[in-house]
Design goal:
With about 70 residues, the protein is of the alpha+beta class. Helix content is about 50%, strand content about 15%.
Length: about 70
């Protein structure tokens, strides 16, 4: 996955995570995307190595922003 494969939801998630750690619920609130969309896209971003789940409570942080390559 590279920056050309990113969806609009991915961009908004990455923007939010660039500001600091977020939970899926917070991402739903600030992006307006559905809970299933946020969870699905977070899983994709984690699998790609761009985002990491850092706590079992569902706290995520940005590891690498693919848009900066």
């Amino acid at each position: 996955m590279d920056s050309t494969d990113l969806l609009a939801s991915d961009h908004e998630i990455l923007d939010a995570l660039a500001e600091g750690r977020c939970t899926p619920g917070f991402l739903v609130d600030i992006t307006g995307f559905s809970k299933p969309t946020i969870h699905s896209r977070l899983n994709v971003l984690v699998a790609a190595g761009y985002v990491e789940k850092i706590h079992t409570s569902g706290l995520y942080e940005l590891i690498e922003d693919p848009r900066e390559e």
